[in-house]
Amino acid sequence: MHLSSIFKEYGIEIEQTKIVRHPLNKEDVRKAYTENMIEAYQAAQSKNCFDNCKYIASFIGTNKTEALFIGLYEIVDSITGPAVKEKMPEGYPYPEHFDENHMYYVMKKLDAMSDLIDKLVIEWGKSTLSWYQWASTDKEVLSISNRNEEEFPGYEELIVSYSVLGDLVDRKDRYKKWIEALSNVNGIYLICDTKRNKQYIGSTYNNMGILGRWTEYYKTHHGGDEGIKEHLKKYPDAFYDFQFTLLRILPKNISDKEATSVESLYKNKLCTRNEEYGLNRN
């Protein structure tokens, strides 16, 4: 199935529609999205990218080349000059997006395709730098899920890809049981780069638990770890291939000394200080 067939099913005029992909690996996109200001982010543009279309179908880039549908919008009007600043919502984290050098597009979110929001996933393709394209540039539909709440598989069975970690952080309604389970314990965790055969072992010993630490990896990609920073300098997109698992559960009140002692044991067991296939530097 292709996106064009869905547009036709819902009566969307393809020749007047552009598709837009906001990638979560960009810090400003991620912050706007997590703070529920993505509509303001897409309305303020540095050039007239939406002047010649009537509709935009908006997507969030959740993985290397995938995109999750978040809504269909009609372009109602455009504003330029000093009046753009007046459209900035309170608390918007990037005021420079609303200066006189930007345009502001007044958009109306439509009911059409609303049943596919947070369900429809498409393959954007290799041209991810082209963040807006005409809808006539057809895209493959990868899935249309029901997005119901996911059951937590248990600590022993847990395997979390980077894209699922993004759902844990950004789509909390679907992963309530996961969030509760991963927030209430500490542990020894393993990060694998599944394509480059690299491994990193870490531990948690704070009040935020495992989820708090893993959220740092999602937001920064490296979590402040030197070995992972080095790895990402060599392979900047490698974080998309990260897989997170648990090696051992630790109590929430464990001390940092106790946790790092267990962590060191697992580093020795799995040889993750070996630079050939390990990313631990201490």
Mind explaining what this structure looks like?
The protein is an alpha+beta fold. It has two domains: about 5-145, no CATH class; about 160-270, GIY-YIG endonuclease, CATH 3.40.1440.10. It has eight helices and twelve strands. The protein has helices at about 5-10, 25-35, 40-45, 160-170, 175-185, 210-220, 225-235, 255-270, and strands at about 15-25, 45, 55-60, 65-80, 105-110, 120-125, 130-135, 140-145, 160, 185-195, 200-205, 240-250. Strands 1, 2, 3, 4, 5, 6, 7 and 8 form an eight-stranded mixed β-sheet that branches. The protein has a four-stranded antiparallel β-sheet with strand order 9-12-10-11, sandwiched between helices. It is elongated. The termini are far apart. The model has no long low-confidence stretch (mean pLDDT about 90).
What are the salient characteristics of this protein?
four-stranded antiparallel beta sheet; 12 strands; 27% strand; GIY-YIG endonuclease; alpha+beta; 2 domains
Percentage of β-strand residues:
25-35%
Principal-axis shape: elongated
The N- and C-terminal alpha carbons lie at a distance of: 49 Å
Whole-angstrom Rg:
21 Å
* Content-based structural category: alpha+beta
Characterize the biggest β-sheet. Answer: 8 strands, mixed
Number of strands: 12
Helix content: 25-40%
Number of domains: 2
From N to C, what is the helix and strand string? HEHHEEEEEEEEHHEEHHEH
Number of helices: 8
Q: What average pLDDT do the residues reach?
A: 91
Segments where pLDDT lies below 50 for 5+ residues?
A: none
Task: Give a short synopsis of this structure.
The protein is of the alpha+beta class and 282 residues long.
